[in-house]
UniProtKB/TrEMBL annotation:
Keywords: Hydrolase
Coiled coil: none
Record organism: Nonomuraea coxensis DSM 45129
Entry-linked Gene3D superfamilies: PPM-type phosphatase domain
Domain of life: Bacteria
Protein name, per record: PP2C-family Ser/Thr phosphatase
Keyword rRNA processing: no
Length: 256
């Protein structure tokens, strides 16, 4: 049976930044978080440019029969091309980039695309799974057995990202296609959330707060209470039966 998603999205500047370089977008079939980097407002430009392409794709993609993975890959490639153009216009923007974590839904399946250290999680049958792998230096060190997960969490270079969508050429996203099941709950977030809240706290909020709007606000509040060192962007989406309706809530900085 075809399903809908009920969703909420929010973004906050956090406790230590002066501007929000995150962007996010959520609709009845597309969820995206982008965390920009580059300085001189280039990070904000990079993330908003990526989101603009995603919104265009959402507006023009056919309602049925679309190749979900191909559509996401094409949108990310187009976003990369636009970042190159923006850097060509202003050399000060060279080196700017953005993470992209996106899910595209057709009522039965999600395509997942991922670049960087924003994350996607799935809550299913009470268990929380991280669907994405961080493209960071410390994650590569964990994969190689050089440090533990606990050491990675406090490593001084834990924020160094190795693969993003940038102005210096195309980066290949991790791609996956996943079946959606009734009562699944998805969380997409920038690292401003996960730098403060561990899996146990994410699990607690996602399992005890039923309303996506309230869950988004609770996660942002907890991150800020923990002194989040970065901007915080959160999307929570539930797979629901047709007719259950959707919800979209944006705070300052969410969307582009």
């Amino acid at each position: 049976m075809k399903h809908n998603i009920r969703y909420a999205a929010g973004s906050d500047v956090g406790r230590r930044r002066e501007q929000n370089e995150d962007s996010g977008y959520a609709s009845g079939r597309l969820l995206v978080v982008a965390d920009g980097m580059g300085g001189h407002a280039a990070g904000e430009l990079a993330s908003s440019a990526a989101i603009a392409v995603m919104r265009e794709m959402d507006a023009t993609l056919p309602e049925t029969g679309a190749d979900l993975e191909a559509a996401l890959e094409a949108a990310i490639a187009e976003a990369g091309r636009r970042l190159v153009e923006l850097a060509d216009i202003d050399p000060a923007r060279r080196g700017m980039g953005t993470t992209v974590t996106a899910m595209l839904f057709d009522g039965y399946r999600f395509a997942l695309a991922h670049l960087g250290d924003s994350r996607g999680y799935l809550l299913r049958d009470g268990a929380l799974y991280q669907m994405t792998k961080d493209h960071t230096l410390v994650q590569s060190m964990v994969d190689e057995g050089r440090i533990t997960e606990d050491q990675a969490a406090v490593h001084p270079r834990r924020s160094m990202v190795l693969r993003v969508l940038g102005s210096e050429g195309r980066a290949e996203p991790d791609m996956a296609l996943r079946e959606a099941e009734p009562d699944d709950r998805y969380l997409l977030c920038s690292d401003g959330l996960t730098a403060v809240l561990g899996p146990e706290m994410l699990h607690e909020v996602l399992t005890t707060v039923a309303d996506p709007v309230v869950a988004v606000q609770r996660l942002i509040d907890l991150a800020n209470e923990g002194g989040s060192p970065d901007n915080v962007t959160v999307i929570v989406a539930d797979v629901v039966a047709p007719g259950a309706g959707d919800v979209a809530v944006y705070r300052v900085g969410a969307g582009a």
